[in-house]
Structures are given as structure tokens and as C-alpha cells.
Amino acid sequence: MTTSFPMNAGDGVYSYYKNSHLQKEMIDGAKEMVRDAIIRMLNIKIILSSSNTLHIAELGCSVGPNTFSAMHYIVEALKDKYLLYQDQVINFTNNIPEFQIFFNDHVTNDFNILFQSLPFDRSYYAYGVPGSFYGRLFPSRSIHFVHSSSGINWLSKIPKELVDEKSPAWNKGLIHYVGASNVEVVNAYFAQFEKDMEIFFNVRAEEIVQGGMMVLITAFSGYIRLMRFFGSSLMDLVNEGKLDESLVDSFNLPLYYPSPQEMTKVVEKNGLFSIERMELINIKSNLVDEADAKTLMTSLRSSIEGVIISHFGSKIAEEACARTILKSEEISEWMKVNNENPSILAEEIVHGGMIVLITPFSIYVRLMKLFGTSLTDLVNEGKLHESLVDSFNLPMYFPSVEDMTKVLTYPQSKLVDEADAKTLMINLIAVLEGLLINHFGREIAKEACERTILKSEEISAWMQANYEKSCQLFVTLKRK
């Protein structure tokens, strides 16, 4: 039997309906990929051979509004796919098919809010299907397209080993596998995910027509790392004597974030579906300042509050959630670091995860020579001590192809005339000004920058002569 923890119901302050901003970013970030999968990979001929009505299942719909956004672009993509097929087939005059969408979530999901907010201009018929997607939901061979975003991360239950003091996988003091040094904890989570997905694929294979498609999008993996802030709030309550430590030791979040390799393993082990496309998406959230951190944690609360209340009770859940939101400033700093400096996340990237690195336009480093001449001019005029220039070096390096042992790609920049040269130098100054002020002081930095901009004509001539030598380096790294 699966455990049911739906998103917060209603439309109040902490409802999922009003606090699903990050989930919206996830859905929007995958929109074009879903459309591309439908246009390029879905066999519309097979699907339409038996019916002129397309059946779409939305698994883990919650209460909206994100589910409606996802269904809108899926229906539009299916219409476009149909029209493309119609253009390619002689004497094919069938009308655009009708669409039935089955919105599924736990039986305790707030379907009233969901259906009250259905878009008036929708071009589909909507149905509610309550029940766990770790079981049968639809008749055999009845579904043409399945979509699930941020759904399969939820396990059907917490592995019992995690709360057993005698088990090597006992997860004492932590509420999730992220941050756990005990590999047995991670193994227990994956084993449960593997069992759940075997059931999931088996029942979906019964329900989906031959040639039908299923798109699964896992939740933002950075989301779960925010749980450490919630965990620290729980420990604060323990230290203040308001919460028994054993309650924390017996609590684990039923969430798992599979790597591409793990997802491939469970699909291939099941053998009932083929992988048409799989890749990591890097969603860089716009939520970065303190107000946004509060928004994000409120969103997190709307997702997990049911789990918390079930284990700790309403009073403790309320205080723990409130305390976590008060950590907004600390969370904001964490978000900024993790948004702007992804390279420091090497310890957190899953095996098989991916990093994409793009070096700056290498023309920059050649322009530094001209900036250096401006500094030398100031030395010659007695406005700047030569030792300051001698002790200044830019902390920048532009690796060669050999250095990175990867492939070069050449940019298609059109910055070649004098006005463009000025634009480029202003851009460069915007990048470096803080560094220059720190070393030379504001007055000298300002004058050196202004003098460099005045050299636009010289810069333009150099750019025209050296454009073909300029390059950008694109590197893809795989986490070992």
C-alpha cells in the first residue's frame, strides 16, 4: 500500500496552488524538449489508426496551475504533429483529433481547486482520476501520451531500514540521503525507487497503446538540498527541548532523485519501454535574493507539509516550517552561491551528471594589451606609480584546445566596427571594474577605463584583423 502525501490543498497562503513557482520553472524549462519529442518521435499514424480521440494522462497533477500550462503546450504540439502528418499523406482528410486529458493524483488531492481553476479556453475534455500511479489507473491500451513532472521522485513508501536502529542503513540525525555519509542509506533509497519504477512501468505498459509515448520529468535536484535548512530547524527544536530527538531519527523524506544511469538501469531492466531521449536540464532559477528565498521555502512547505504533519503533528510542523522560512537570508546566500558557482557543486553532482563549461570570448584577453597601454600612459604622465602596474596581473586564463582536450567552436560575432569596439570594451570594463578599483583605487580605475574606451578606432582595426583567430571554447564534463 502506498503512502499518500498530496500537496497542500486549498488556495491559502501556504497552498501549493499559490506556491509552485519552482515547479513552473521546471515545466517551462522542459517545454521545447517535450514538443520536440512529440514532433520528431511520436508515431501519429499508429495512434490514429484506432481512434480519432487522443487520450492524455497527467500523472501527479496536484491542484494547478502548472498542470494546465503543461497540458496546453502538449495539446498544441500534438495538433502540430497531426497537421504535419496530414500534409505528408495524400487524400488524408480526417479532422484534427479531439483530446481527453485525465488528471491524476492521490485520492486526497484537492480536485475541487483543480477543476475550479480549469482554463475556460481549453481545447480538451478534462477528467479526474484519483489514485496512486504505482497501480493501475486506466483500461488496457487506452492511453496515447503520458506526462509526469516532479512526480516519480516521490517514493511509494520510506524504506524500513532507514528507521531501524539495528540496520546498517539507519539514517540517524538526518532526514534524507543527501548529506548522508553512509552508502547503505543511499542504497536503501535507490532499492525502493527501483521497486517502485518496476511497478510503474508494468502498469503503464498495460495502459499505453503500442507506439504511445511517456514523458517523465524529475524534480529540480537542488530542491532537495534545501532540505538541510529544514533539517537544521528540526534540530533547533530538539536542542531547545521542544522535540524528541527520536522523532527526527525516525523521519525520512520519501524523495529520490535518480541519475541518468540509474534511470537507464530501471528502464532497461523492465524491458517494456525504449529510451528515445534522455538528458539533464540545467534550470537556473531566477529566485536568488532573500525575498525569493522566502518564496522558495514557502513553496517547499506547500509540497512537504503533509509529510511533516503526519510524522510530527501540526504544532511541531508549523513551528519547524516557520523557523525554516526565517532562515531566508542564509538560504539566499546558499542559492546565490549555487546559482553563480556551479563548479563548487562537484561533491553534489550525481555519478554520470553533467557540467557544461563555456570560456569567455578569447578576444578579451587580446584587448587587455590595449588596457595595459592606458595604464602605462598614466605612469608616463606621473599619475600612477609604476610599481602598482608591476604588481598587477589579471587573474584570467584562456585555455587552448590542447589544454582542455576538447573541441573548439567559433562564434559568429559581428562586433567589428568602431561603435562595436566601444561596446565590447564597455562590456569588458563592466566585468573587470571591481577588480581594478580594488587594486588601483576608484579614481585611477575610472580614468584608465575611460582612456581605453577612447581607443575604439584602434581596437576596431585590431578586431577586423584578428577576428578569425577569436574563439569560444565549449566543454562538456561528466562526473566520475
UniProtKB/TrEMBL annotation:
Q: Name one Pfam family in it.
A: Methyltransf_7
The alphabetical list of record keywords is: Magnesium, Metal-binding, Methyltransferase, Transferase
Could you tell me which SUPFAM superfamilies the record lists for this protein? S-adenosyl-L-methionine-dependent methyltransferases
Coiled-coil annotated spans: none
State the source organism's domain of life: Eukaryota
Q: Name one GO molecular function term.
A: methyltransferase activity
User: For this chain's UniProt record, which GO biological process terms are given?
Assistant: methylation
Say which family it is in: Belongs to the methyltransferase superfamily. Type-7 methyltransferase family.
Q: What PANTHER family does the entry give?
A: S-ADENOSYL-L-METHIONINE:CARBOXYL METHYLTRANSFERASE FAMILY PROTEIN
Name this polypeptide is given = S-adenosylmethionine-dependent methyltransferase
List the source organism.
Solanum commersonii (Commerson's wild potato)
